[in-house]
C-alpha cells in the first residue's frame, strides 16, 4: 500500500532502501547494501528474526530528501509528507507532535511540556534550544500548543493549518491502537479514560478532533495575543560539549543536559576501545560509573523522570530537529478535559530528566550526525556509547539491551526486550544493586535519524512500536 503517493519502500522502515547513485556532495560516505526489517505490532518471531538481521548486518542507507522518526508509523509519515510538500524540519516536527497527541496519549498530549533543539549543518552555527518545559497552565491554549506555535512563528514555513490537519483526520476518522498504548492503560489502570482496548482496534476521539480543528483555525494574529511574556517559551543557545571527537548539543542549565556531559566525561576517562565494548566488563563499568554520577550529583532526586515521546527530523536543507515532549507520568493527571485531552500533572518548577540531543562529528563535515531524544542521562549515555564507542549501526544502537538507573542507585533491567544482556553481564549489573529490579513494559523508547556523508539511516525504537519514514 502507498500513502500520499510516496513510494512504499521509502516510507517504511521494514523495507530495504537502496543508495542513490548520484555523485555525493561529501567526500566521505558509506555505501553498500544493508538491511532494515522492523515491523509494527507485537514482537513476534518474524520481528525478532528481522531485528537479528538488522542489528548484526546493518542498515540500508539512502540519499534522501528527509526523514522523520517517531513512536508511530503514521506520525512519522505525517512528518515526511510535510517535508515533501516543501516544509522544513520544524514544520515536520510540529505536525508529527500533533499526530502523537492522538496516537500516544499515554506519553504526550496537548498539555505536554517539552523542548526542541534546532541545528543547521550547512551554517554550523550554535544549536538553538526552545524550552517550553516550565510554562504555566494557560486558559487560552494548552502548553504543547503554545510551545509548537512559538516554534512555528519563529522558524516554520508552511501554513499552521496544514500542520494540524492530518491529526484532525486521525482523531475524527479513527486510529489503530498500539500494543504500547494498551499496555500503558493496563499498567496505570486507565480504563476509565479509553475503555478496555485491544491492539489494532480502531478508535475515534472526536472531541479531541474538534479541539484540534479549533487549534488549526487560530490565526497568526490570535497567536500573537496568546503568546505573552508570561507564557512564552525560553529560547537560548544549546549547551555544547565534546565526547569521542564529536560535538554534542543538549539543553543548558537548569536542565539535566550538563549532567549528561559529566557522565560521558567519566565514561571517556575509562578509555574503552572497540574491543572492550564487546566484553562483559564493559557493561559493568558503564553501570558502575552511571551509578556513581547519579549518587554523587543526586541526579534522580533533582530531576523527575516522567514519560517521553521524541521526534527526530532531518530535511533536505540540513536542518536537524530533535523534539521531545512528555507528561509527568503515564496519562498525566488521569483526568480527561471537556476538550478531549488529558491535563499534565507536573508541579510547577519541577525539573524533568528528558532531553533532546544532536551529535555532530567535530573533525569531518561529512562524518556522523545523529539526532535523537532520551528520557534520562543513563539512557542517553548508553545510546551515545553504542554509536560512538561500540561503533554500532543505527538499529543496533537503539535495539541493544539497556539498563535504567533509579534515584537510589538501583539498576533496572528490561526483562522482555530482545536482544538480552548475557548471563555474565546480568550478574555483574545485579551485583551493583542491593535488590533486583526488573522493568515492566512499556519501556522508554529512543528514535533516531543518523546521517553519514550524504547517506541517511533512521530507526524508531521497537519498544514503542514505531517505524521511521523517509523519502527521496
- Beta-strand portion reads 15-25%
Radius of gyration: 21 Å
Relative helix content: 25-40%
Low-confidence segments, given as residue ranges, are: 1-12, 14-25, 27-44
Number of strands: 18
Number of domains as seen in the coordinates: 1
Structure summary:
With 472 residues, the protein is α+β, with helices and mostly antiparallel strands.
Commentary on this structure:
It is built from 16 helices and 18 strands. The two termini are 18 Å apart. The strands form four sheets. It has a seven-stranded antiparallel sheet, with helices on one face. Strands 7-8-11-12-16-17 form a six-stranded antiparallel sheet. Strands 13-14-15 form a three-stranded mixed sheet. The model is unreliable at 1-12, 14-25 and 27-44 (pLDDT under 50). It has one domain: Gamma-glutamyltranspeptidase, small (S) subunit (Glutamine Phosphoribosylpyrophosphate, subunit 1, domain 1, 4-Layer Sandwich). With 472 residues, it is α+β, with helices and mostly antiparallel strands.
Amino acid at each position: 500500500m502507498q500513502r500520499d503517493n510516496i513510494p512504499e519502500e521509502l516510507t517504511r522502515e521494514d523495507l530495504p532502501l537502496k543508495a542513490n547513485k548520484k555523485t555525493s556532495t561529501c567526500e566521505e560516505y558509506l555505501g553498500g547494501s544493508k538491511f532494515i526489517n522492523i515491523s509494527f505490532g507485537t514482537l513476534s518471531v518474524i520481528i525478532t528474526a528481522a531485528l537479528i538481521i538488522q542489528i548484526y548486518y546493518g542498515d540500508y542507507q539512502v540519499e534522501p530528501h528527509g526523514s522523520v522518526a517517531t513512536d508511530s508509523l503514521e506520525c512519522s509519515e505525517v512528518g515526511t509528507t510535510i517535508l515533501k510538500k516543501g516544509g522544513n524540519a520544524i514544520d515536520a516536527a510540529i505536525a508529527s507532535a500533533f499526530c502523537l497527541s492522538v496516537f500516544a496519549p499515554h506519553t504526550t498530549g496537548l498539555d505536554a511540556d517539552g523542548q526542541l533543539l534546532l541545528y543547521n549543518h550547512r551554517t554550523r552555527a550554535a544549536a538553538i534550544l526552545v524550552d517550553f518545559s516550565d510554562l504555566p497552565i494557560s486558559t487560552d491554549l494548552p502548553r504543547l500548543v503554545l510551545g509548537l506555535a512559538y516554534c512555528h512563528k519563529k522558524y516554520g514555513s508552511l501554513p499552521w493549518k496544514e500542520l494540524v490537519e492530518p491529526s484532525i483526520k486521525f482523531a475524527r476518522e479513527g486510529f489503530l491502537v498500539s500494543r504500547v498504548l494498551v499496555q500503558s492503560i493496563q499498567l496505570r489502570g486507565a480504563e476509565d479514560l479509553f475503555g478496555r482496548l485491544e491492539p489494532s482496534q480502531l478508535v475515534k476521539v472526536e472531541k479531541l478532533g474538534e479541539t484540534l480543528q479549533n487549534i488549526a483555525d487560530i490565526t497568526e494574529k490570535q497567536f500573537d495575543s496568546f503568546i505573552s511574556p508570561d507564557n512564552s517559551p525560553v529560547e537560548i543557545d544549546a549547551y555544547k560539549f565534546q565526547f569521542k571527537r564529536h560535538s554534542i548539543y543538549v539543553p543548558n542549565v537548569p536542565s539535566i543536559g550538563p549532567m549528561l556531559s559529566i557522565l560521558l566525561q567519566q565514561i571517556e576517562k575509562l578509555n574503552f576501545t572497540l574491543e572492550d565494548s564487546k566484553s562483559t566488563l564493559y557493561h559493568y563499568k558503564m553501570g558502575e560509573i552511571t551509578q556513581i554520577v547519579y549518587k554523587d550529583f543526586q541526579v534522580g532526586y533533582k530531576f523527575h523522570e516522567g514519560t517521553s515521546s521524541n521526534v527526530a527530523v532531518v530535511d533536505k536543507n540540513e536542518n536537524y530537529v530533535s523534539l521531545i515532549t512528555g507528561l509527568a507520568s503515564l496519562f498525566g493527571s488521569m483526568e480527561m478535559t471537556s476538550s478531549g485531552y488529558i491535563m499534565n500533572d507536573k508541579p510547577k518548577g519541577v525539573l524533568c530528566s528528558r532531553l533532546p540531543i544532536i551529535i555532530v562529528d567535530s573533525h569531518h563535515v561529512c562524518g556522523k550526525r545523529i539526532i535523537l531524544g532520551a528520557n534520562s542521562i543513563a539512557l542517553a549515555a548508553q545510546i551515545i556509547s553504542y554509536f560512538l564507542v561500540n561503533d554500532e549501526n543505527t538499529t543496533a544502537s537503539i535495539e541493544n539491551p539497556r539498563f535504567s538507573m533509579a534515584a537510589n542507585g538501583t539498576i533496572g533491567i528490561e526483562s522482555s526486550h530482545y536482544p538480552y544482556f548475557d548471563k555474565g553481564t546480568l550478574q555483574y549489573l545485579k551485583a551493583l544493586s542491593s535488590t533486583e529490579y526488573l522493568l515492566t513494559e512499556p519501556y522508554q523508547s529512543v528514535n533516531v535519524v543518523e546521517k553519514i556523508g550524504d547517506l541517511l539511516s533512521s530507526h524508531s525504537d521497537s519498544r514503542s512500536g514505531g517505524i521511521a519514514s523517509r523519502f527521496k
